[in-house]
Amino acid sequence: MGANWTFYMRxxxxxxAIECFRDAQIDADAETEAEIQYWISKCYNDMGDFEQAIxxxxxxxxxxxxxxxxxxxxxxxxxxxxxxKLNKSEEAIKLFEKVMQSEGATSDMGRIAKKRIEEIKxxxxxxxx
Length: 129
Prior knowledge:
By secondary structure, the chain is mainly α. 74% of the residues lie in helices and 0% in strands. It is built from seven helices and no strands. Helix 1 (3-10) packs antiparallel against helix 2 (14-25), helix 2 (14-25) packs antiparallel against helix 3 and helix 3 (30-47) packs parallel to helix 5.
């Protein structure tokens, strides 16, 4: 990642970070574009704009090209967490189920997603950060 991106994120200057990310996204290869889109999403999430964060996270899965690293599944999981912050459990469950389907229920990500689903269904949620 470029120095400006991390600089602005560390300062919590999210609008400036998003601007840098969007500029870099224009010329990025497929692998890097998905990562950049993920970090744009994180900026909105960290600003507390969970609706926009969800929209941006879903772009990683549905608009960015497939990547070697699991950016799409990570973004789906993070979107599920954002839904939980909005008290939209059913939407969160759907995304966690998609993570389990794409990564496999026994993968690390699949197990974490399954645990979240169980927590939602039992009402025994850990604090979501």
